[in-house]
Structure formats: structure tokens, C-alpha cells
Design a protein that fits this description.
Strand content: 5-15%
Shape: globular
CATH topology: Rossmann fold
Structural class: alpha/beta
Number of helices: 8
Largest sheet: 5 strands, parallel
Strand order of the largest sheet: 2-3-1-4-5
CATH architecture: 3-Layer(aba) Sandwich
Distance between the termini: 39 Å
Order of helices and strands: HEHEHHEHEHHEH
CATH superfamily: P-loop containing nucleotide triphosphate hydrolases
Oligomer: single chain
CATH class: Alpha Beta
């Protein structure tokens, strides 16, 4: 970091921003394989929170790659940078007083641990969608598993790139056995 850069302190703090929103800001970090249901669950959760008057935002992995992370590829270094940038943006949004729902595969424990380290105690909830590879491949929502199995897509998580399962997530949901609404209600019970 340059010695010419200083941290600027401002009078309003996260608590001031959250107070006018009448909510506790937090980051709900959804991790799991492609096809585990992160985007569908984030969408349902945001709608539910909005109906309760909560101020929210979804940071979806695919959507971030259309803008903020458009310059990144899918090598492990690029994927780690993708997670790092998403975590930094989520931290800023929590500081703004929002409930941020992040939906990223975020395959490595080290990267998820770093994301958590940006937040104060209780602000970060790791939500692990523990849906099996077999079920995710069966769903193959984007056709990516088929391409990976055919050798048309390299470094695909769960096929030829690792996914390190969370050891002690704050919330674990197997979407093979739960509907989106059931999973959403379990998250709501855990955070409210």
C-alpha cells in the first residue's frame, strides 16, 4: 500500500446508518457447488426480508462477473480475487447498514475465512448449501457440468477443481431435501 494513502475517519458510523434502517446489518455468505441453489435461495430470502421492511442487496457471483469482476478469469488466482473483491464490497455494504446476501461458490476455506475476518463478531453468517455433487450435476442449471465432463470447461469446481466443504458453517442446508421456501425460513429463524 502506498505511504501516500491515509484512512479517512468520518463522524457517522455503521450503527448510525443501521439505526435509521431499523435493522442489524450483516453479511449472509452462501457457499456451495454450482447448482446447489444459492441464487434461488438468495432471491427468495431478499424478497422475504424486503417484505419485512429490511434494506438488502444481493451480490451474485455471475452478476459480479458482468461488471466489477469482468476482468477475471477462472484460474485459482482469479477465483480467489473474485472472492476477495466480493468480500470487500459486502463489507462496505454492511458498513452502510444493509443486509447483504452473497452467493458465491467460494470453494476454498482460506478465502471464506478471509471474508469472515473483514466483519465484526456476529456480522458474518456462513450459509453452506451442502447439496451433493450428484444432485448439482443432475440439476446442471447452466449446462456447466456437462461441459466440464466433456472436457470443454477446465477448472470447474467439483469436477477438476477442489471445493473445500465448510467445517463449521453458521447454517447448513441440504437443498436436496428442502424447498427454496423451507430453506429460506430456516435462514430467517437463524438470523432474526
Amino acid at each position: 500500500m502506498s505511504s501516500n494513502i491515509q484512512w479517512q475517519s468520518f463522524k457517522l458510523q455503521e450503527t448510525d446508518r443501521a439505526k435509521i434502517k431499523n435493522q442489524t446489518p450483516m453479511c449472509l455468505w452462501m457457499t456451495g457447488l454450482s447448482g446447489s441453489g444459492k441464487s434461488a435461495l438468495a432471491n427468495a430470502l431478499e424478497q422475504k426480508l424486503n417484505s419485512l421492511g429490511k434494506h438488502t442487496y444481493i451480490l451474485d457471483g455471475d452478476n459480479l462477473r458482468h461488471g466489477l469482476n469482468a476482468d477475471l478469469g477462472f484460474s485459482m488466482a482469479s477465483r480467489n480475487e473474485n472472492v476477495r473483491r466480493a468480500a470487500e464490497v459486502a463489507k462496505l455494504m454492511v458498513d452502510a447498514g444493509l443486509v447483504v446476501i452473497v452467493g458465491l461458490i467460494s470453494p476454498l476455506k482460506k478465502e471464506r475465512t478471509h471474508a469472515r475476518s473483514l466483519f465484526t463478531e456476529g456480522q458474518f453468517k456462513e450459509v453452506y448449501l451442502s447439496t451433493s455433487l450428484k444432485e448439482c450435476e443432475k440439476r446442471d442449471v447452466k449446462g456447466l457440468y456437462q461441459k466440464a465432463r466433456a472436457g470443454e470447461l477446465n477448472d470447474f469446481t467439483g469436477i477438476d477443481s477442489p471445493y473445500e466443504k465448510p467445517e463449521s458453517p453458521d447454517i447448513e442446508l441440504n437443498t436436496e431435501n428442502l424447498s427454496v421456501d423451507q430453506a429460506m425460513e430456516l435462514i430467517m429463524k437463524a438470523i432474526l
